[in-house]
Amino acid sequence: QVQLVESGGGLVQPGGSLRLSCAASGISSINAMGWYRQAPGKQRELVATITTGGSTNYVDSVKGRFTISSDNAKNTVYLQMNSLKPEDTAVYYCNMIGGWRIYWGQGTQVTVSS
Questions:
Q1: pLDDT value, residue 110
Q2: Which segments of 1-114 are extended strands (E)?
Q3: Is the per-residue pLDDT at 49 higher than 90?
Q4: DSSP label at residue 60
Q5: Mode of pairing for the β-strands spanning 32-38 and 45-51
Q6: Cys-Cys with 68: which of 48, 73, 102, 112 at CB 3.0–4.6 Å?
Q7: Residue range 93-103: mean pLDDT, rounded
Q8: How confident is the model at residue 29 (pLDDT cuts 50, 70, 90)?
Q9: Which helix (H) or strand (E) holds 100?
Q10: What 3-state DSSP class applies to 32?
């Protein structure tokens, strides 16, 4: 079965950086990858997406600060987060679309606080 394992979350000060990783196993073909986040008491929002062809999209609040990338040979998606703000605090979830099916990672906590 498909498994998505996330890593890279943690506690950082405002202005700091983190890189999240999400590695998948059990998926034969991936069409697109993305990152979502959910802050306490708020709905989950889409942060960034990337297709296997390299096309990317970002929510306005992270443009210029976050970069999504992928290593398709390793079935891995990354999220480089720079200039982090307290409002970026959330649980971050990766997802992948393969064969018109959507798969989710377990979530990793990102906390931005001084």
A1: 98
A2: 3-7, 10-12, 18-25, 32-38, 45-51, 56-58, 66-71, 76-81, 90-98, 101-104, 108-112
A3: yes
A4: G
A5: antiparallel
A6: 48
A7: 93
A8: confident
A9: none
A10: strand
- Residue 79: closest CA among 112, 28, 37, 25: 37
Residue 54 has pLDDT above 90, yes or no: yes
Select from 8, 25, 9, 20 the least CA-distant residue to 103.
25
In this structure, the number of other CB atoms found within 10 A of the CB of residue 9 comes to 19
pLDDT at residue 100, rounded to an integer: 82
Cα distances (Å, whole numbers) of residue 37 to 27, 29, 43, 55, 114 = 23, 24, 9, 20, 21
Whole-number Å distance between alpha carbons of 89 and 69: 21
68 with 19: CB under 8 angstroms?
no
**pLDDT band at residue 15 under the 50/70/90 scheme:** very high
pLDDT at 61 over 90: yes
Number of neighbouring beta carbons within 10 Å of residue 97: 18
Mean pLDDT of 89-96: 98
Q: Which two tokens stand for residue 20?
A: 């999240």
